């Protein structure tokens, strides 16, 4: 009887042992599979994150647009009364220019400041105008601009004068690329009125080349009417780029 009992125990152990071993192997394989799966997923996530970041960086670097100067002139908190209370937002005024004689301004409203600035910048890029510059640094002649209660006076200046302007007007000339100018605001200090009045004066700027073309004359003929000799007038005409 003892031998039969021992044989049964041995047979049971021999039958159950492989089952346990196979189960352990399956469990180990399962754990290993989960571990490998976790590592693979982690690696894929990291790779996806890296590729995404690189793509965004290349998108900014490979942008085909021109390099623009953006100036935030004014930002104001606004509110709208609706049913149940007030809804607050922000209004931004932005000036954009290429520093080579082109500039524009725009305004935008949104619930958040960055979105308002983005809207204003987009509107400014669509409304850019070209202004002829003398020697690429100053205005060709004096001018006056007005919008509403805003009045501004612009005067050409010799080299080394700098930008004599304040507030919104300085942002316009810095983005436009003007290095020497003297300005004076004699009206409203509202930034919207000042910006519009400044652009009103800038759009009236004309160059000798455009005037000569419109009148069917040579640039040297127009410059010689101020008392300058023919040689001086011709030299000044040749020096005019725009």
Largest sheet: 4 strands, antiparallel
Enumerate how many helices there are, as a single number: 7
Low-confidence region ranges: 5-64
- What CATH calls the topology of one domain is Double Stranded RNA Binding Domain
Radius of gyration: 37 Å
Portion in strands: 15-25%
CATH architecture of one domain: 2-Layer Sandwich
What general outline do the C-alpha atoms trace?
A: elongated
How many strands in all?
8
The largest sheet has its strands arranged as 1-2-3-4
Q: What is the average of the pLDDT values?
A: 75
Oligomer: single chain
Elements, N to C (H/E): HEEEHEEEEHEHHHH
Helix content: 40-55%
Given helix and strand content, the structural type is alpha+beta
Distance between the termini: 120 Å
The CATH class of one domain: Alpha Beta
């Amino acid at each position: 009887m003892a031998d039969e009992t021992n044989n049964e125990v041995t047979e049971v152990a021999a039958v159950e042992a492989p089952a346990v071993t196979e189960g352990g192997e399956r469990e180990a394989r399962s754990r290993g599979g989960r571990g490998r799966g976790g590592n693979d997923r982690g690696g894929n996530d990291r790779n996806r994150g890296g590729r995404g970041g690189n793509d965004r960086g290349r998108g900014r670097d490979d942008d085909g647009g021109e390099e623009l100067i953006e100036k935030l002139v004014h930002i104001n908190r606004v509110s709208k009364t609706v049913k149940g209370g007030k809804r607050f937002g922000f209004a931004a005024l932005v000036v954009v220019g290429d520093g080579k004689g082109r500039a524009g301004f725009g305004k935008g409203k949104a619930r958040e400041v960055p979105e308002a600035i983005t809207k204003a910048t987009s509107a400014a890029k669509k409304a850019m105008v070209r202004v002829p510059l003398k020697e690429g640094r100053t205005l060709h002649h004096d001018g006056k601009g007005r919008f509403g209660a805003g009045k501004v006076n612009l005067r050409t200046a010799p080299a080394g004068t700098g930008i004599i302007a304040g507030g919104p007007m300085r942002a316009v000339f810095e983005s436009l690329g003007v290095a020497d100018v003297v300005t004076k605001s004699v009206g409203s200090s509202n930034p919207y009125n000042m910006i519009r009045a400044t652009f009103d004066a800038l759009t009236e700027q004309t160059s000798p080349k455009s005037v000569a073309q419109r009148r069917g004359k040579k640039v040297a003929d127009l410059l010689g009417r101020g008392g300058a000799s023919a040689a001086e007038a011709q030299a000044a005409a040749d020096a005019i780029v725009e």
